[in-house]
Amino acid sequence: MAQGRGSAVVLAVVLLCVLLHSELAESAVYTVGDRGGWGFNTAAWTRGKRFRAGDVLVFKYSPSAHNVVPVTAAGYRSCVAPRGARALRSGNDRVTLRRGTNYFICTFPGHCQSGMKIAVNAA
């Protein structure tokens, strides 16, 4: 009997690993703004796309001209990053989406107000 239980546990672990792997394999990678990259008026870029939690957004831009800051809904509306918000500055940033709406802005002066922000809803 103990050996039968051990086999069942091993089978369960293997099935769990397969399920977790298949979930990761289904994640999509999107370059924000497509060929144009992260820039002004990218809000419309999300139209027609279906995002899922675990998908990856790649923000490509010139780090001397822009950044990417994940913010809350309030930060998105006001174009103000909350104190302690982590700015991404590599010019080739990868962000994994969490379930719900994910908000991003550029905090260079005037950029967010000029349309350099996106809201991405991940199912």
TrEMBL record:
Record PROSITE patterns: COPPER_BLUE (PS00196), PHYTOCYANIN (PS51485)
GO cellular component: plasma membrane
InterPro entries: BlueCu_1_BS, Cupredoxin, Phytocyanin-like, Phytocyanin_dom, Plantacyanin
Domain Phytocyanin: 28-123
Gene3D superfamilies for this protein: Cupredoxins - blue copper proteins
Keyword Iron-sulfur among record annotations: no
Record keyword Disulfide bond present: yes
Top-level taxon of the source organism: Eukaryota
MF-aspect GO terms: electron transfer activity; metal ion binding
One Pfam family it belongs to: Cu_bind_like
Signal sequence range: 1-27
Keywords, comma-separated and alphabetical: Copper, Disulfide bond, Metal-binding, Signal
SUPFAM superfamilies on file: Cupredoxins (SSF49503)
Protein name, per record: Plantacyanin
Organism of provenance: Eleusine coracana subsp. coracana
This protein's encoding gene: gb11224
